Every structure is written in structure tokens, then in C-alpha cells.
Amino acid sequence: GIAYDPPSAAPSAASLHVRAARVLAANWTGTSTVPSRNLYPHQWSWDSAFIAIGLRHLSPLRAQRELETLLAAQWGDGRVPHIVFSPSVPLDAYFPSPDFWRSSSAGRAAGAPRTVQTSGIVQPPVHALAAWLVHRADPGLSWARGFLARVYPRLAAWHRYLLRRRDLGGGGLVSVVHPWEQGMDNSPCWDGPLARVTPAPAHSFRRADLAHGAPTDRPTDLDYGRYVRLAADYRDRGYADDGGEFARADGGGEFAVEDPSFNALLIASEHALARVATELGAPGAGRHARAERLTAALVERLWDDASGMFLCRDLRGGPIRERSVSGLVPLLLPGLPREVSGALLSTLRGPHFAARTGLVPSYDLRGPAFEPNRYWRGPAWFNTAWLVERGLRAHGEKATAEDLRTAFLRTAGDSGFAEYVDPGTGEACGAPGFGWTAALTLDLLH
Ligand code: 9WN
């Protein structure tokens, strides 16, 4: 026989860089980047923020455009929609499509744009953090294009919308009104609150995701029935945010949850916006102070000493006793009380989250609802790993951060920049060539 050397298991950093750049080039539409050509062929809000963070190393210009394109679809009330639809993509390529959301008619009172079609819900506010990092990558280009001066008022209006219109619980934190808003669509955290929602009949809509993803990797039909009901109800109320309605515990099926990751990202972005303001010669101190007040509210309302992590709070039902990676994301905040950051570090290293791949599972490895392949019910995702890695560095945990970074780069490359992976085996799941997996790989390589 012929003896041969197997190819090296660890591709060099240079080829990883080149492969990640290729994914981003393939997903670039000319004005923004799709998360996946097949599964998600439009622009997604928090995807674009993560993608811009990686793109800044390849092309600061494209990174700026990515954010500008998203912000151009902002609504008059300040909300940044979770999807900006591409008019050149067939309607049946993704569900729910523009004819479901009807933003330019149903969203008129809330100031939806007339010329571009969008969804009417939001996603986590990672954008100000992204804008600040993009600016820093090439300040010369940024000043020359007036990037910060153009995005600052939009980012400020976005945060104002969340803080004024979405404090449904009255305790200073922002609530999400749909699982898609929080970004971890079928997390076991939503099982309780979703159980109150009457699903839309199965024949009333057609899922497009199953044409590209294995049903065992995706949310269930029952989940989808409830997603559709919640979104249709919100649309039929003109996408109006009425805090009083959510505060009542009288049934009716609405979903309103205070989530640790969503709020931590808002806080990190508020600190970033303070830096943007200062850079532009405007006062930033007030924003830093607000971010500190939000951090105090986060600890006050969502910290759970017994589980050593943050929990979601259902405005109707109280604390949600499920361990999700969402409850670890606040590690991102340098201003956490010592006891809190210390407990988060132990939880991260403990039996609920220490996965074989060295990545962070989306849900408790020992939890009753754990499934290693089903979307946000166990698989490890790269955006949350990136956030936790950043959090570890913020708290001086260099060695643990380095281990997570190594695991991230190895698994991202081996999986072909998969959307997510089995946290035990690293097996690729979901869409290949996924935008934020490639982008955040580039960021960790720098
Ligand atoms: C619904 C685009 C998005 C991500 C979410 C992820 C998934 C959409 C879907 O894909 O959600 O918004 O159709 O499943 O859960 O985090 O932003 O990548």
C-alpha cells in the first residue's frame, strides 16, 4: 500500500482566515450580509451587528455599510426591525415573509418605513457596541465618511425606544414580547410562557425553514404555531407597545419576558454609546451612569443566588427556573458585583455548562429539556461563545478565555462555519457557511 500523511487536523490561522473571509464574501449582497444564503436570505438585526464586528478586519467600509443599511430601515418610533427584507428574494424563500408582517401598512402608526419591507419585532441591541468597534478599526475612514455622526442619533433613538416603550415590568429593564426578539427562539426558558399562547392553526401558514434544515434540528410545529400567533397579534395591534396590558395577570396569552442576555447587551451597548458620544464631543457621562443603573436593576431583578446565574423573568409568572446561556452572557459587564461575577465563573466551569468541546451549550447539559441538536435547546452557538469569551477577558480570566477562544476557532473551522454544533461532539448542525460564525472567527483571529 501507499503510506501517506493524513492532512493536519489543525488548519493554519491563515487558511482559517481565508475560509472565513470567503463565507462573508459569499453572503454579501452589496449592501449587507445574509446569515445564510439558503435558510436566512435577508438581513437580520443582531446577525448584522456580529457580522460587522468581524467584517471590520476585512473591510471597515463594508462593516460600516452593514450597520448603515440596517439602521436605514429603523422605524419612526426608534425600533430597529429584526429582519430587513431583500426585495429580490422570492416571497416563499423565508417564512414569515413581508406579506405576513405588512410593516408599511400595519406599522404605519409606529413609523415603519414606506419603501423597505421589514418585520415589526426587534432583536438584541448589539449595534452600538458594533458601531464603536467598527469605528475604532479605522477611525480615519470613519471620520471621512461621517460614520459616527450619522449612526449616533439612530442608535440613541433605538435605545430610547427600548428603555421608554419596552419597560413593561416597570423595574427599569426591557422586556421582549416574542421569542424571536430575544434571539434564542426555542429556548426551554420560553416553554412556560409559551404554554399560555393558543397556537395558530397549522394550515394557516407554511414553514420555509424545513426545506433547508432537518426537522430534528429546528423548532417544532407547535412552537411555530405559537410564534405565528404572537407575531400576528402584535401586528394586529399596530405593533403598539402597551405596558399596562402586559402587567395584568388575566390570561390573554401575551408573552412578556425580561431576559438577562438582551438586557446585558443593551447595557454593554449603552456604555459603547457613551464612548461614541464622547468621541463626537457630546457628554457621555450620563449614559455611563444609566448603564450602571441598568446593571443594578439587572442584578436586582434577575440574579439568582441558588443557581449561581441570571434567570429570565416571566412578567406573568415570575422567575423562570431554567438554566440558559442567556444567564451567563451578563459576564460581559465589567461593573458586576464581585460575588456575582465569581459565581458566574463557577457556574460556567461547573457540570451544567462545561461541555466536551470546550464551547458553551445554549442550555443546561443536565436540564430536563436538553437536546444536543435542537437549535437553542442545548447546541453550542458561536455568538454566545464570543460574548462569554469577551466577558472572561473583562474579568481578567485570561487562561479560561484562551481555552474558549481555542475551542471556538477549532470547532468553527472544522464545522465549516456551522450555524451551531453539538456541544459534546462538535458535530455541525443547521446552516453551513453561517455569517456570524465566520465573522466572529475573524474577530478572534485578530
Ligand atoms: C427567526 C438569523 C436568525 C438569528 C436567530 C436564530 C434564527 C430566525 C429563524 O435565525 O431565528 O428570527 O427563522 O429561526 O434563532 O438568533 O438571528 O440567523
Automatic annotation (TrEMBL):
Q: Which residues form the Mannosylglycerate hydrolase MGH1-like glycoside hydrolase domain?
A: 40-437
Swiss-Prot/TrEMBL keywords: Glycosidase, Hydrolase
Any coiled-coil ranges, and where? Answer: none
Its GO biological process annotations read: oligosaccharide metabolic process; protein N-linked glycosylation
Q: Which domain of life is it from?
A: Bacteria
Manganese as a keyword of this entry, yes or no, is no
Which InterPro entries does the entry mention?
6-hairpin_glycosidase_sf, 6hp_glycosidase-like_sf, Glycoside_hydrolase_63, MGH1-like_GH
Could you tell me which Pfam families the record lists for this protein? MGH1-like_GH (PF22422)
Annotated Gene Ontology MF terms? Glc3Man9GlcNAc2 oligosaccharide glucosidase activity
Record family assignment = Belongs to the glycosyl hydrolase 63 family.
- Designated name of the protein: Mannosylglycerate hydrolase MGH1-like glycoside hydrolase domain-containing protein
Tell me the organism.
Answer: Streptomyces seoulensis
